[in-house]
Amino acid sequence: TKSALDREVETAVKTMADTVNNFGTVWLSGNGPGFCLAVDTAQKLSTTISRTERPTRSCVLGLNGAVASTSFGKLGSDDALGEELMINGRRGDVLWCFANDAGSKATLNLVKRAHNELGIPVILFTVYPGLPLVRFCDVKVRIQTSDELDRSGFCVEQAHKFLANIVCNQLKRISRKAR
User: Fold this and answer.
1) What are φ and ψ of residue 125, in 5° steps?
2) pTM of the full predicted structure?
3) Tens digits of residue pLDDT in 20-68
4) Which of 33, 44, 45, 130 has the smallest set of CB atoms within 10 Å of its CB?
5) Strand ranges of the sheet holding 94-99, from the earlier edge strand across to the other edge
6) CB 109, CB 81: distance < 8 Å
7) How deeply is 119 buried, as exposed, middle or buried, from its count of CB atoms within 10 A (0-12, 13-18, 19+)?
8) What whole-number distance in Å separates Cα of residue 36 and Cα of residue 178?
9) Is 72 helix (H, G, I), strand (E, B) or coil?
10) What is the DSSP letter of 98?
11) Where does residue 147 rank: exposed (0-12), middle (13-18), buried (19+ CB within 10 A)?
């Protein structure tokens, strides 16, 4: 039988495959170390899929300086990422979020807007099962750790990176070939 983690990863792959196969965009976001993982994962998506398959559109929220500075000035830091997604996102996209910080208002606001206003699926990689944003996420991939001190530490980051690589590789395997 499959573990809960196996089922969550499988659901994440299927959710993203639907987006990729329907020419949607995979939006990535993260806070703290999760932001670095979002950038790394976007690169992995582009090199895993785009060279041999139909190009995959993926974008890391917060990297577009013009949009970020406009949103930040207009709304403040807690809503800048959500506003960037609202400007560029559309139905058929997916948000993939790496939440390593339990108290990020920016991530909470982003996830709420993606779920409530755009109606796009949200995939969350986290170690915190009780985050307020969890109720707005369609897929929750949770790394369990017995060590409270490691919740935002190296082992969790490496586990998230490992699982993100699995998702990208599985996505390549099942995504539709270019026409």
Assistant:
1) -105, 120
2) 0.86
3) 888 899 999 988 788 889 999 998 887 765 545 566 788 999 877 666 6
4) 130
5) 57-60, 25-31, 94-99, 122-126, 139-142
6) yes
7) exposed
8) 29
9) helix
10) E
11) exposed
| Number of Cβ within a 10 Å radius of residue 148 | 7
Of 86, 85, 174, the closest CA to residue 97 belongs to: 85
Instruction: Say how far apart CA 127 and CA 133 lie, in whole Å.
Output: 13
Q: What is the CA radius of gyration of the chain?
A: 15
CA distance 97 to 122: 7
pLDDT tens digits for range 158-170: 888 999 999 988 8
DSSP letters of 120-179? --EEEEES-TT-GGGGG-SEEEE---S-GGGTTSHHHHHHHHHHHHHHHHHHHHHSPPP-
Token duo for residue 179: 């026409």
